[in-house]
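Researcher: Let's walk through a ligand-bound prediction step by step. First, I give you the protein sequence. Second, the SMILES string for flavin-adenine dinucleotide. Third, you return the three-dimensional complex as structure tokens. Ready?
Model: Ready.
Researcher: Here are steps one and two:
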Amino acid sequence: MINDFNYLKPGTLKEALAMYAEHDDCKVICGGQSLLIIMRQGMIAPEYLLDIKHVDELNYIKFDKKGGLKIGATTTHHAVEKSDVVKANYPALVAMENKLASIQVRNWGTICGNLAHADPAGDPAPVLIALKANIKVGSAKGERTMALDEFFVDYFETALQKGELVLEIQVPVPQPKTGTAYQKFNLLESDMGIVGVAASITLNGNKKCKEAKIVLGNAGPIPKRSKRAEEFLAGKALNDDVFTEAGKIASEECEPVADIHASEEYRKHLISVLTKRILKKAYEEARG
Amino acid sequence: MIEKYAVLYPHTKFHVINTHVRNIDGVAKVTGRAVYTFDVKLPGMLYGKILRSPHPHAKILNIDFSKALELPGVMGVVTGKDTLGVKQGIWRRYKDLCDEQILPVDKVRYIGEPVAAVAAITEEIAEKVLNLIDVDYEVLPAVFEPLDAIKKDAPEIHEGFERNINVTRHIEWGDVEEAFEEADYIREDWFKCGGQAHMCMETRCAVSSYTPDGKLTIYHSNQSPYYMQALMAGVLGIREGDIRVISHYVGGGFGGKFELDGAIFCSAVLSMKLRRPVKIVYTREEDFIATKRRTPMYYYTRTGVKKDGTFCAREAKVFTNGGAYTGMGATALYLTGFFHSFPYRWKAYRYDGYRVYTNTLPSTSMRGFGAPQAMWCSEQQIEWIAADLGLDPIEMRRKNAHHEAYVIPGQATIQSCGIQQCFDEIQKWIKTKGKLPKNRAIGISAAGFMSGGIFNWFDTPYAFSAAMVIINQDGTVELHVGAQDIGQGSNTTLAIICAEALGVKVEDIKVHSGDTDFCPPDLGAWGSRQTLMAGNAVKMAAEDAKRQLLEFAYAQSGMNIVYDLDIKDRWVHAIARPERGNDYTELVKKALRGKDGHRIIGRGYYTPHRKGMISPAYSYMLQGVEVEVDEETGKIRLVDSLTAHDCGQPINHLGLIGQLEGAFSMAAGYGYLEYMPYEDGKLMNPNLVDYKVMRATEMPPTPVAEIDTYEPEGPYGAKEAGEGLTNPTAAAIGNALFHLFGIQIKECPIKPEMVLNTLKEKREKEKNSKK
Ligand SMILES: Cc1cc2nc3c(=O)[nH]c(=O)nc-3n(C[C@H](O)[C@H](O)[C@H](O)COP(=O)(O)OP(=O)(O)OC[C@H]3O[C@@H](n4cnc5c(N)ncnc54)[C@H](O)[C@@H]3O)c2cc1C
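Model: Step three, the predicted complex:
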């Protein structure tokens, strides 16, 4: 049962940051899709909830050819999924959102809330890291921006400091001849992934890999890049054998934890299969 | 079968049966007006919570709740010592199988078992106070698996049950040894069948209100208000008639809600102590860890057949994980043994079942009642035997299947059976499917099920089903039934039967159910009994009322006595001259006057007699499922299906389709999704994130080919539907995997990792044998 708490409802970002600085034992709530579950399970019992859902100045999707994509903190999954600019420029994000949870959850939950929750099985992080996203955070004292890759610290733990909110996700315009793809493995469509893999490939010419990014979801405490597999691919002429080999390397590099749904060995196997498949998909997309 | 029926009764044409009738509870449900137990709120009501055992096996040495009583808002605490300590069970005829104290006095036997219950002015306080109750346990060694629990040195879970064997069941006919001698080919296999959670949308909940006049009113979510009334009388030491159980709307049962649960018992004990209404609602987690579940089983089965595919003999041994208490597990143990023979003719058959106590959640009945396990093993082994002998698996089944007038020695007589037409339909379907993609295959499985049980271990003196029909002066009808609508739509089905029999429209019928003060006792909604048993009672009651009406109509008409009268669609007429008649409502008014205002009341009941050991009638079905498997990950997807289904004369078309869809999803879940892993007696996934239930996105199309038969024992020829279809799907999925890869998976549910590992093993074996 959810504990009693004091409810704070700021009207503006400034107010929100001030309130957040002022109150100890305060949790941010946006869509509540993750937070309320752990509150109901009694895992946390904060004294204050700071509701930012209605801070409209954080509700936006902006895009320009130079600066890329900017998604504000209160933007829902649904808004991202239905956005024309996202569809046109980051189809991998839309495909990921389509399979994230159910329509109801997407209508209310936010992509930034998902990142701040830092569940290693979350879908957005691997794709965004593969797209080289940055995350802007800020407190009453000021703002800072970091690579999303550096945002995750441990299971359900991020680099956010006391009083800091996630403000925005920034996704650069992909280089020409870049393809990005994501796939998760689950038993029920739209469940969280048992594992997931995102990959981005930038080609040099038609076959050669200029740069690759491979990000593994739920294969360790945080979304994890498979740097060895990325290095292996750099400069290679790409084909099915190369993808298979990269999959093997990625699976050796990760440290998934067994649970009732899948053994460690099986998870590693899935990583290698998914990596192979997703690299191929990204490659085909890069070739256009 | 309408045509056949029409030959017997040439004037008959259905006016209501199997027409498009909407669920009569539909409006109340979709507008949120239906009051479920969960919604009940009484003046002065308190909220209860249950403290549960963290140990799988322990002695309760002492319970100290003095600190709890100090918390403001806490009104009282009860433990086993506040109860009569009655060991209760639903097999009331067999005292040694009444083994469960819902608040145990001195010992707990599974994690989650109630230890104490509190009542407070809010649910929050009730939950918080649980932490303030100190229980001293002496932890005892525990055992979790039946094959460990039967070992000589295993811990003793209940006194006096040697090797923890709770119940044994034996079924035998023919000379098994001799019949095996006749076989050209014998195959034996071991299987393992998982448990499954009932997963009702409405978790267990109750509101009990005891008043100082010694009367107890209980709102409770259950499948049989009469059972609850009788069982509660037993554990509380008060008369059945002083207890009223109200269950107007129930959010699902699936076999898990016709025994006492902690919510009903603890709320009543608290209410009797505190003299205030007490409500207890289980959380989803409590529903998972502290109710009961489908019985996990270990199956050994040995089958002998002739070269041409004729079945000779089968012998099966089954060990079931009974968990801590008997529940309905003894019936599941019998039924799995019986349905393991289904739907085939065996010259000789022998079954030995052992239900074993363990320190886990008790197992019990669940939709299919032992038959899904039986079919999972039987239908796969039969498929493998056909392959071993190079025979067509459908033709081999066809050759050995039940038929009308077949007698299962000592067990049952089959009066209607459409299985041959089922084979035809599925064969046709497979043909139209043509060549499938490389990663897909079709698996089939046959099944059948009972239409209500004949057994009376509950030891009721009442008829199994009863109904009363009262006609009002405006022609509307009060139909009182003890049958329980738990979402399966029995109120609608019974209204249809009543309307058909009486000759009125469905909207003329008001169904009164789910209240022991106003409804006749009835065993309730389980074992697929209500359409046949309560249906017959309703038909009899409606016909009784109609006869009384027609007496008046006849006296008025002045017709020659060789003419018969009837009512159809509110039209009272001579059967031979249907165009000449009178309005039904007018007749009702006249009849009332003629009777000096005495109401017209029809009464009906049904108790099976001379119908064998199991059931008066059996449904038959064959299912084909098209399955796709990702060879690299082992992931299963159901692509398409067809079920050929013989349930006699369908009564309610829409209801039937809904029930079959629901059964499919539950059966498929059992086949490849729903697992209940335990670690040291602790369920590892008691939530809906980790326990996987089919969703709309996982459902393939589930069309049904209805087979036209007529069951003489059923009302208007109807028999079971909606439970039996939980039986075939797991085996059909398994058989598809067999055809796709040649692998034989002997454990369900089939997890993707198992598919991969089995495939890998098989390929390695093949490689080695090539070398
Ligand atoms: C049924 C269901 C299925 C789901 N399936 C999936 C799935 O398939 N894949 C997937 O990736 N996710 C899934 N989710 C998770 C879902 O995506 C997230 O719950 C949701 O996106 C979180 O957003 P929110 O706005 O609801 O966050 P909240 O629940 O409000 O917050 C989540 C956490 O982030 C913090 N937080 C929120 N916003 C900020 C901010 N601006 N700054 C700092 N901290 C913040 C909160 O304090 C809290 O700790 C599922 C959830 C549910 C309920």
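Researcher: And what stands out?
Model: The mean pLDDT of chain B is 96. The pocket of flavin-adenine dinucleotide is lined by residues A 27-35, 52, 73, 77, 100-101, 105, 109-110, 112-114, 116-117, 122-123, 160, 165-166, 190-192 (CB under 6 Å).
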